[in-house]
């Protein structure tokens, strides 16, 4: 669900990004074309200026000697350059001395003033004719009017390039989107597979759990039955019955909760929590769970806080306590302790990163486990308890939860030497005063 | 300057009448030729050291009488070649010590055109002649083409006189003797 929710905007963004990319490419293409056009015009202007300067130099003597015919010869020679639409030489009074105009180009005005003021769309160049620091006149060259088709032709390669690049981006975006869709589908399929496997396991469990649940219901019913016939003045007795029923109901609730926690992916809601307070809050529950034969020692020395889902953490502790009770059928001592601990890198377990942790320890003096049992203790559905007494989910869900909370769970045990469950959870580094 | 410009009207008239009557309006032709005379100078380079300073005078000599009826004096009055003021000098005879930068050789009774040209050959003198007056050609030789004043240039003679003539002027000439045959 969460994956789907985050994946949808991402895939919706992809075509937008591709569109933006294509747009950027097209804009870049347009800019490149504009730049190219400017470079082209500048180069054209330079070429025409050079041509005009050459003409100005060559008509100098002709202007000095007033040889209009020679001027005309020089001007006419420019007609060989097809880029020139019209060219002419004006004298110092701005009167036309000689000129030529290509077919299709407007002939030059009699006066240079009119020519320069005229609404010329074509590029034109004025170059002075000077001789010995004296101005003799002006060479005027007007470029041909470039047909639109020819100007467009110049930009065809750039346009093609930009369009092809844009198409490529679009194509890539489409294929990326397809790939993303496929990945999403696969991820969903995997989720579904995992869930169906889980549901199958839950189905197989149902029998055992139902039996367990039934036992608990029997306890509740028995107590209620006894209450109905109890001497109303025997307050202690009534209290006992109520406590027993309560405990059974709690266990039934826990059983259901554990099953639910396993069967559906419950989102965790981690909160900063003082592990000592959490443990002390469960004191009564633990005392009742383990029974009168087990003595409990409390040694809560931690000062740091942790961050985890409170309900799940309580569930873990209760599970561990019940496991400990089951391991000590003839009674014993259960030691529950917490402490601050800083782990360095390369510590005994490479799976735990270096840093500050809060350690929770539950030690029993029970039967302990063989190496083989210990190795499988964290596997789901593994239990040493008789049929109907346990589901085999306690430790495995505890382990999964601790890992989800970036912590670690370890078991120290040996046959007849008791079992110690060690849980480390990362220290909460936020403000603990305000949240307290 | 005018006092130095002597224009014997009789002589001018005599020459005028001696000219073949190709154009009815000789006055325009003469005015053009007179103007051309000093305008040639701006396209010619004299050897370094020819002029004392940038503003020292440019000596334009006329050997013989002004065949254009005083129009030379009119044309050059107040004119300069670059920044050199033009000083017009009337000579009866030209020799190596004449110190003329440009010399219009019209020919006179005391010295034929050919003689005058020979006299200044090898000196830095731009010699100008008129085909209407004599077939003998100096460095620049006026000709009339299609009723228009034009000129031939003898670049070999110019080189002999240590002069460098701009290609701009050469391009305007009707014919140029480059020593490798006459072009154009």
Question: What attributes characterize this protein structure?
Answer:
heterodimer; A: 436 residues; alpha+beta; five-stranded mixed sheet; four-stranded antiparallel sheet; 12 helices; rod-shaped; disordered N terminus; B: 184 residues; alpha/beta; nine-stranded mixed sheet; two-stranded antiparallel sheet; 6 helices; 28% helix; globular
Describe this entry's structure for a reader.
The complex is a heterodimer of chains A (436) and B (184). In chain A, helix 1 runs antiparallel to helix 5 and helix 5 (148-228) packs antiparallel against helix 6. Chain A starts with a helix and ends with a helix. In chain A, 56% of the residues lie in helices and 19% in strands. Chain A has a five-stranded mixed β-sheet with strand order 6-8-9-11-10, covered by helices on one side. Chain A has a four-stranded antiparallel β-sheet with strand order 2-1-4-3. In chain A, strands 5-7 form a two-stranded antiparallel ribbon. Chain A has helices at residues 2-58, 60-64, 68-77, 112-117, 148-228, 235-263, 275-281, 283-290, 310-327, 371-376, 394-404, 432-435; strands at residues 84-91, 96-101, 124-131, 134-143, 271-273, 294-300, 306-308, 332-343, 355-364, 408-413, 419-426. Chain A is rod-shaped. Chain A is an alpha+beta fold and 436 residues long. Chain B is α/β, with parallel strands linked by helices and 184 residues long. In chain B, the strands form two sheets. Chain B has a nine-stranded mixed β-sheet with strand order 3-4-2-5-6-7-8-10-11, with helices on both faces. In chain B, strands 1-9 form a two-stranded antiparallel sheet. The radius of gyration of chain B is 15 Å and the shape is globular. Chain A binds chain B through residues 57-58, 60-62, 64-67, 69-70, 131-132, and chain B through 32, 36, 39, 42-43, 82, 148, 150, 166, 168-169, 171-172.
């Amino acid at each position: 669900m969460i994956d789907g929710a985050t994946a949808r905007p991402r895939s919706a963004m992809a075509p937008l990004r591709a569109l933006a990319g294509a747009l950027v490419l097209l804009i870049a293409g347009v800019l490149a074309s504009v730049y190219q056009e400017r470079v082209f015009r500048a180069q054209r202007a330079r070429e025409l200026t050079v041509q005009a300067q050459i003409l100005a130099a060559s008509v100098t003597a002709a202007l000095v000697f007033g040889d209009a015919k020679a001027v005309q010869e020089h001007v006419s020679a420019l007609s060989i350059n097809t880029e020139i639409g019209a060219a002419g030489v004006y004298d110092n009074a701005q009167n036309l001395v000689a000129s030529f105009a290509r077919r299709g180009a407007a002939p030059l005005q009699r006066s240079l003033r009119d020519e320069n003021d005229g609404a010329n769309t074509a590029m034109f160049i004025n170059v002075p004719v000077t001789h010995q620091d004296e101005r003799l006149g002006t060479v005027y060259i007007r470029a041909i009017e470039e047909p639109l088709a020819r100007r467009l032709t110049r930009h065809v390669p750039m346009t093609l390039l930009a369009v092809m690049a844009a198409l490529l981006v679009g194509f890539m975006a489409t294929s990326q989107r397809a790939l993303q869709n496929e990945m999403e589908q696969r991820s969903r399929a995997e989720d579904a597979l995992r869930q169906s496997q889980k549901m199958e396991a839950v189905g197989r469990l149902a029998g055992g759990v139902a039996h367990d649940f039934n036992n608990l219901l029997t306890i509740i019913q028995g107590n209620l039955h006894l209450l109905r016939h109890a001497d109303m003045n025997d307050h202690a007795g009534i209290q006992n019955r109520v406590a027993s029923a309560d405990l059974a109901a709690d266990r039934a609730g826990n059983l259901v909760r554990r099953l639910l926690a396993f069967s559906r992916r419950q989102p965790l809601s981690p909160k900063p929590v003082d592990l000592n307070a959490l443990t002390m809050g469960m004191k009564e529950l633990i005392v009742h769970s383990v029974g009168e034969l087990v003595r409990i020692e409390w040694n809560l020395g931690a000062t740091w806080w942790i961050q985890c889902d409170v309900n799940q953490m309580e569930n873990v502790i209760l599970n561990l306590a019940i496991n400990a009770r089951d391991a000590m059928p003839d009674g014993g001592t259960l030691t529950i302790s917490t402490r601050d601990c800083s782990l360095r890198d390369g510590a005994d377990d490479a799976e735990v990163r270096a840093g500050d942790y809060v350690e929770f320890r539950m030690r029993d003096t029970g039967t302990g486990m063989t190496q083989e049992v210990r190795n499988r203790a964290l596997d789901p559905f593994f239990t040493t308890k008789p049929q109907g007494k346990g589901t085999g989910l306690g430790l495995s869900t505890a382990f999964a939860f601790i890992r989800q909370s970036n912590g670690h769970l370890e078991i120290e045990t040996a046959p007849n030497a008791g079992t110690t469950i060690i849980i480390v959870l990362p220290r909460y580094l936020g403000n603990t005063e305000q949240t307290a | 300057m005018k006092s130095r410009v002597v224009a014997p009207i009789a002589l001018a008239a005599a020459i005028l009448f001696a000219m073949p009557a190709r154009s009815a309006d000789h006055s325009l032709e003469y005015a053009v030729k007179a103007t051309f005379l000093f305008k040639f100078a701006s396209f010619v380079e004299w050897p370094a050291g020819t002029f004392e300073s940038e503003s020292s005078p440019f000596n334009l000599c006329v050997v013989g009488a002004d065949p254009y009826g005083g129009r030379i004096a009119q044309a050059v009055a107040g004119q300069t070649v670059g920044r050199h003021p033009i000083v017009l000098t009337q000579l009866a005879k030209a020799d190596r010590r004449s110190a003329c930068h440009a010399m219009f050789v019209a020919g006179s009774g005391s010295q034929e055109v050919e003689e005058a040209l020979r006299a200044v050959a090898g000196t830095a003198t731009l010699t100008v002649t008129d085909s209407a007056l004599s077939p003998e050609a100096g460095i620049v030789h006026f000709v009339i083409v299609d009723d228009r004043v034009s000129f031939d240039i003898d670049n070999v003679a110019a080189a002999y006189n240590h002069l460098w003539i701009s290609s701009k002027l050469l391009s305007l000439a009707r014919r140029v003797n480059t020593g490798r045959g006459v072009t154009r």
